[in-house]
Design brief:
By secondary structure, this protein is mostly helical. The protein has 2 domains: about 100 residues, no CATH class; about 130 residues, no CATH class. The protein contains 9 helices and 7 strands. It has a 3-stranded mixed β-sheet with strand order 3-6-4. Strand 1 and strand 2 form a beta hairpin. The structure holds zinc ion (ZN). The site of zinc ion has 7 residues, from helix 7.
């Protein structure tokens, strides 16, 4: 199936072909609906409760209170810890999604911190007590103790890394973006950035773009406005997240003498 294809852009909303003369040919699809933040949070909390229940099961197996005789004890412990891990990760994914639909306000710094760190807190609760109990258990044999502890620590690391909010946004930043930007925005299959122009220079060729509102972009984890697009459209970027907030000064200083870098200590 290697014949040359004629590139065609179809609007997902109207089903009609969009004029084909764009140099950066892309397939566009319509954004998913934003979804219900409360429902996602309830789902997250339920999964986290189940995760903690699996941790309790792991502890009970370790203490030999529970003993499924058809399986070695260490296998039972590992299964309980893996189920614990799966529930933590899915719960955190739902929670983070909810944070991008209905972000916490920065007016309450503690709640903002808590909302964005719930996944990491739950990850800690889901494995650290097991590790402490396993390490302080004097009756368990050394091999079981070592393997169970190593598995729990690895699970803790995986849970923590995948539950952490790497891309936080506040209610104020979401509102600023929704106020400043009118009409549809566009985003690529990966990354944190949305664009106002589908032919933005930051897109590479033949990327599949999603089109939607700013609210939908943020809900999809695209929390930052492209700084090229912001400049081109003269958007007031005070109070909204862009991909250039941190680097803007650096970009303007690109001509700075490179020897400066060489003074770095060895
Ligand atoms: Zn752009």
């Amino acid at each position: 199936m290697a014949e040359t294809k004629k590139k065609k852009i179809v609007s997902a909303s109207t089903g009609k072909e969009v004029s084909g003369a764009r140099k950066k040919a892309t397939v566009k699809k319509q954004a998913a609906p934003v979804g219900n933040a409360t429902g996602l949070r309830v789902g997250a909390i339920l999964l986290w409760v189940v995760a903690l229940a699996f941790e309790v099961v792991a502890v009970l197996i370790f203490n030999k209170t529970i003993n499924l005789t058809f399986m070695p004890q260490i296998a039972q412990i590992i299964i309980a810890l893996v189920l614990d891990l799966i529930c933590v990760i899915i719960g955190s994914t739902l929670w983070k999604k909810a944070n991008h639909i209905k972000p916490a306000s920065k007016k309450n710094p503690f709640l903002f911190w808590l909302w964005n760190n719930m996944g990491v807190i739950v990850s800690t609760l889901a494995f650290v007590p097991f590790v402490i109990l396993a390490l302080t258990n004097k009756e368990a044999d050394k091999k079981t103790k070592t393997i169970a502890t190593v598995v729990a620590v690895i699970a803790l690391a995986i849970a923590g890394l995948s539950s952490a909010e790497w891309n936080p946004i506040s209610e104020e930043e979401q509102q600023a973006a929704m106020t400043e930007i009118e009409g549809d925005v566009f985003w690529a299959p990966s990354g944190k950035v949305y664009h106002m122009d589908e032919d933005c220079q930051a897109f590479t060729n033949s990327e599949e773009l999603t089109v939607g509102t700013v609210e939908e972009a943020i809900a999809a984890g695209r929390t930052r406005l492209c700084s090229f697009c912001a400049k081109r459209h003269d958007v007031n970027t005070d109070g909204l997240l862009t991909d250039g907030n941190e680097d803007e000064a650096a970009l303007e200083d690109e001509t700075v003498d490179e020897t400066e870098e060489e003074t770095t200590e060895e």
